Amino acid sequence: MEKKARKIGIMGGTFDPIHIGHLILGEAAYEQLSLDEVWFLPAGNPPHKQNRKGRASDDQRVEMVRRAIASNPHFRLSLIEMNADGYSYTYRTLERLQNEYPDTSFFFIIGADSLFDFHEWKNPERICAAAHLVVATRNQVSSELLDQAIAVNKRRFGGTFLKLDSPNLDISSRSIREMIAEKRSVKYYLVDPVIEYIKEHEIYKDREQEDGTV
Ligand code: ATP
Ligand code: MG
User: Fold this and answer.
1) Which ligand 1 atom is at minimum distance from the Cα of 14?
2) Residue 169: CB within 6 Å of ligand 1?
3) Would you give the distance in Å from CA 6 to the centre of its chain?
4) d(Cα 76, Cα 78) in Å, to the nearest integer?
């Protein structure tokens, strides 16, 4: 791949809510890959997934990301995936970014769980052509298993896969939503400005529906 002037990390996610796992991943990628910036792209929700019980609204998820990254000068918020009909395919987003910023190489940062279902994403080969993939461990997967999954995806879809050196962080938005609904403390799982925002707007106080729509 040709050498580009600028290197940008992309953290996509639902961020419902954004937690320290996301932030630590972004920072580790920034440092280890000498990135110029990391952009956080909250995913839009399709209309049928909006206003669900126990979940934040699109605006609230965006606001939580804004607050979570405010103290970090090389983190930025991008609303490119928050379009009106909600859903955006990663390959389209990355191709659009590539066209808009031809001097930039993009590094798409994902957790191991996303790598394991990467083959089910729309056009994985186009994702690999538009960005380098950066994978972080999750759910205690062994380094060997992660290497194996990387090799399989590389063979199948081409491109570059890089492994992040990051700790296994047993933390998910889902577990945080549950903790809040059960009135347990989430201090240190989320940054304080996000905790304050959730309290102020009473987000996640109801349990989410367990009917498979989440
Ligand atoms: P949910 O529980 O609602 O699925 P989540 O914690 O998995 O939320 P997402 O917004 O779905 O968060 O994740 C966005 C990206 O961040 C995904 O690529 C996911 O693999 C990664 N990620 C999230 N939390 C972690 C973590 N603790 N360790 C490594 N990767 C993570
Ligand atoms: Mg997830």
Assistant:
1) 10
2) yes
3) 21
4) 7
Mutate to test the pocket of ligand 1, among 55, 90, 137, 173 (most ligand atoms within 8 A of CB): 173
How much is the pLDDT for 214? 44
DSSP 145-183: HHHHHHHHHHHHH-S-EEE---------HHHHHHHHHTT
Give the HSE-up count for residue 68: Cα atoms under 13 Å, Cβ half-sphere.
30
Beta carbon of 16 within 6 Å of any ligand 1 atom: yes
Contact 167, 138 (CB under 8 A): no
Global pTM value: 0.95
Neighbour count for residue 201 (Cβ, 10 Å): 14
In which band, very low, low, confident or very high, does the pLDDT at 2 lie, cut at 50, 70 and 90? low
Closest CA to 18 of 86, 79, 64: 64
* R_g of the chain computed on alpha carbons: 17
pLDDT tens readout for residues 8-38: 999 999 999 999 999 999 999 999 999 999 9
Name the amino acid, one letter, at 28.
Answer: A
Length of the chain: 214
Structural tokens at position 177: 């939503």
Q: Is the pLDDT confidence value at 194 over 50?
A: yes
Ligand nearest to the CA of 112: 1
To test the pocket of ligand 1, the residue of 11, 14, 22, 52 to mutate (highest count of ligand atoms within 8 Å of its CB) is 22
Q: 161-163 and 132-136 as β-strands: parallel, antiparallel, unpaired? A: parallel
Task: Name, in order, each residue with C-beta under 8 angstroms of 174's C-beta and a sequence gap of 6 or more.
Answer: 214
